[in-house]
Design goal:
37% of the residues lie in helices and 15% in strands. By secondary structure, it is α/β, with parallel strands linked by helices. Helix 8 runs parallel beside helix 12.
Length: 366
């Protein structure tokens, strides 16, 4: 069977993506027609969890000396991983795993396919490609080298085409997580809250406002489930006792468990992240307050536009205030059931189109 490397996967913020992807392949019978080898370079523990659920999967390290050497260097804090990767000629194709966006901050210095540079058949699966990111030569070269690109927003396809990718290589899809099924009849009282920091140049005023917001949630007479905020706020949340007996009504979730509070219907959702919102929506939530915080991306706005979800306005960082959040939590505005249903149906239809195209491409890999 053709041997397919599946690279750059990890848990944490991307935890649901790969389960959704391999569930789809399993249902289509593709895990029995192709050997998928997952790369443990970033997160070997998470790879172990995937292999428990999908025993058809193998590790790249188990079949490739180059991959094994690359992982050895990483484990021991030694340089030379990119050079070790050049020894690898074992795989028939390589897939950039779903879960994020093509962005020079992740791949600009080495390119998207640096871990398997000798593999010629290449696929980019369910990613965002945003305006300006392909100005960086190695990122652009990586995208141009792919046989197939499945984007998770329509605007991403336009960016790729403007960079020179033939439209015939591109399929406009949506985020693979929309394919997952969550119980919509499970209710958990209280609020699920995913605040976050910008990825650089955090204003001191913003940190102060986040502290005000945390102070407010400590007064709410309902259970509050926080996603741990990036440092330095994460450590401050620990010092406040979140998740301890001292603050029994205030929990804190992080790493591979960060999405748990959103897998039920809540009284209100306050989200600064994409996938906390997607999972909340799939779990039957209609009271969702959405902020856009991450710099260098408009992926949230793109998703809302693609799915026709204008009932969820995307607010900027300047709107992250105690006053705005308190008003919403105390008087939540619900999106209509029809808007939510239509958005989910649209997303799932687009995901299946992407999977159809991927299955077609797999049929050409020998």
């Amino acid at each position: 069977m053709p041997l397919i490397a599946y690279q750059r996967l990890h848990g944490w913020t991307d935890y649901p993506h790969h389960f959704a992807f391999f569930e789809a392949l399993e249902e289509r019978g593709l895990l029995d027609k192709y050997d998928f080898a997952i790369d443990p370079y970033i997160d070997p523990q998470y790879c172990g969890l995937l292999m428990q659920r999908f025993p058809q999967l193998i590790l790249t390290d188990s079949v490739s000396n180059g991959s094994r050497f690359k992982s050895f260097l990483k484990r021991n804090g030694l340089p030379g991983a990119a050079q070790a990767a050049k020894l690898d000629a074992k795989f028939d194709a390589v897939c950039e795993a779903p879960g994020g966006r093509i962005q020079p901050m992740y791949s600009g210095q080495i390119g998207v396919f640096w871990a398997h540079p000798r593999v010629k058949r290449r696929a980019i699966l369910f990613h965002s490609i945003e305006e300006g990111t392909l100005d960086e030569p190695l990122s652009r070269e990586s995208v141009l080298s792919a046989d197939i690109i499945i984007t998770r927003t329509d605007a991403s396809a336009d960016v790729a085409i403007a960079a020179g990718v033939p439209a015939s290589k591109i399929t406009k899809a949506c985020d693979i997580v929309f394919r997952r099924r969550y119980a919509t009849d499970r209710y958990k009282p209280g609020c699920a809250v995913a605040l976050r920091l910008p990825n650089r140049n955090v204003p001191k005023e913003y940190l102060g406002e986040l502290r005000n917001i945390l102070d407010y949630f400590e007064t709410v007479p309902k259970p509050i489930d926080h996603v741990r905020i990036e440092e330095p706020m994460g450590s401050e949340m620990m010092r406040r006792g979140y998740g301890s007996q001292e603050k029994g009504e205030i929990s804190m979730w992080y790493d591979d468990f960060m999405y748990q509070p959103f897998m039920a219907r809540r009284d209100a959702i306050v989200s600064c992240r994409l996938h906390t919102t997607i999972i909340a929506l799939l779990s039957g939530n209609r009271a969702i307050m959405q902020f856009h915080i991450e710099l260098g991306t408009t992926k949230l706005q793109q998703f809302i536009a693609d799915l026709g979800l204008d009932e969820i306005p995307v607010r900027g960082i300047e709107h992250v205030t105690r006053k705005n959040i308190q008003e919403f939590v105390e008087n939540p505005v619900l999106i209509s059931q029809s808007a939510a249903d239509n958005a989910v149906a649209t997303a799932r239809r687009k995901v299946e189109l992407g999977l159809d195209r991927f299955e077609e491409w797999l049929g050409t890999v020998k």
